[in-house]
Amino acid sequence: MAELGEFGPVLSAFASRFVKVKYKQMVVGLAWALLQPVLSAGVLALVVGAAGHSLADSHVPYLLFVLAGMVGWTYFATATNAAAQSIVDDAGLIQKVYFPREIIPIAAVLAALVDLAAALLTLAVVTAAYGNLPSVSWLALPLPILVLVLCATAAGLVLSALNVYYRDVRYVVPFLLQLGLFGSAVFYSPGSLAAPWDTIYTIVNPLVAAIESLRTIMISNDWPDPAILLPALAWAAVLMIVGFAVFKRLEREFSDRV
Questions:
Q1: Longest Cα separation, the chain
Q2: For the chain, how far is it from start to end, CA to CA, in angstroms?
Q3: pLDDT tens figures, 71-110
Q4: Distance (Å, rounded) from C-alpha 122 to C-alpha 67?
Q5: Which of 8, 40, 91, 252 is the most buried (most CB within 10 A)?
């Protein structure tokens, strides 16, 4: 990991390129990043209906509840999907120039932060429309965002490496992300589970802690629960280290496989 510091400008260049390539070919551009979480939350709220209301926080408008969940989940899904395909997409460059190969999926994860920033802006506007204005607790936003970045990096590193060896991984990833949507408390609250399983579930799946913390910060204008967020942050860091180790192990034959 120390080598990444020496190639900081390369990482920045890759992240910038991911953003430029993505938005250069889009008609609506960044507007889609603003609209996507709202449209997704609206559809999900309609589909889930009353069943979802009973499993969510009754003190929060359900559309707002789901929107906060979709903001966090959409970033993770977008970043993971882009990172999973990144090594294969840059096969020609890998065969010609040396640089730490992990830079490519990590850059894809960082580039997706542009979408996340737009989605958070959308959430802030909708939250304000419901009468909830920003408060000092919003200063804690970097913590759940860091959890999301670590989780996406861990998944992206592993999946991008596996995709080099098994090209059908690209078809499996969207299916896994669909399953993950239902397992990450996007449209329901982990509080609907019996104690202590709600706390265990929130920590074991760090995405749940990140999403719940986003809701607490931006919708309830309160500080996130450190008893949940900090262990989830530590666990996400462990997952990223494991993902990095798996990537470096599989990296040895990239030049021959891509």
A1: 57
A2: 23
A3: 999 999 999 999 999 888 887 777 777 778 899 999 999 9
A4: 9
A5: 40
